[in-house]
Design a protein that fits this description.
With 195 residues, the chain is an alpha+beta fold. It has helices at 94-112, 122-128, 140-143, 160-172; strands at residues 9-20, 31-38, 43-48, 53-58, 70-72, 79-92. It has a domain at 10-93: PH-domain like, CATH 2.30.29. Mean pLDDT is 77; it is low at 123-129. It holds the Pfam family ZGRF1-like_N.
């Protein structure tokens, strides 16, 4: 199943499969699907009947991947049972191999020049800055709008009940103790006893 470095193609095996997301149920509901096993990197990709991607995993067993295998996908909690092999095709790996060779050369060139490829060189950073001087830090008080109170909620001196009583007593000083009766609308008739 291992692909030699000189070979630019690798077989992809296609199988019928059954998959289910009922891992904990005793009576599982299986669905038909198909899976592709990439022999180059031992990746297993599962699809439903309409070719929608269900999930994937990498085959980490020492045994050969074949019919009757049962495994769980990495994400989504889906159990897959491999059925019969329905096809085999060769996948062109030249693009992938060329990409890996190019990345390896770039890392070697960066290591030879003393650069870390994940972090730009310090001289590149200095030349790309638009401001000539170092940044001046502003105090936090300048950045925040001050309300005069920090850290704790302001507790009122009087309770809501006392506030309500004060408002009622303040309004009653100019009036009698009872509330005035509601006024009727001018075009509304008086209610009759019959309703």
């Amino acid at each position: 199943m291992d692909v030699p470095q000189t070979q630019n193609t690798a077989p992809v095996l296609e199988f019928r499969c059954l998959y289910t997301s009922d891992l904990r149920r005793k009576q599982k509901r299986w669905q038909d699907g198909r899976l592709k096993f990439h022999t180059f990197n031992k990746r297993v990709m599962v699809y439903d009947e309409r070719s929608n991607f269900v999930g994937d995993t990498h085959w980490r067993e020492d045994t050969a991947f074949d019919e009757g295998e049962e495994f769980e996908l990495e994400r989504g909690g889906i159990l897959v049972e491999v059925g019969e092999c329905v096809g085999k095709r060769d996948q062109d790996l030249s693009e992938l191999v060329d990409k890996r060779v190019k990345e390896r050369e770039e890392r070697a060139a960066a290591k030879g020049a003393g650069l870390n490829p994940s972090r730009p060189h310090a001289s590149l950073i200095r030349t790309s800055q638009a401001t000539p001087g170092p940044l001046q830090h502003k105090p936090l008080n300048v950045l925040l709008a001050t309300t005069g109170h920090y850290g704790r909620a302001m507790i009122p001196q009087t309770s809501p009940f006392e506030e309500k009583q004060r408002l009622i007593n303040g309004n009653q000083d100019g009036m009698g103790k009872e509330r005035p009766a509601k006024r009727r609308k001018p075009n509304e008739d008086a209610p009759s006893k019959s309703g």
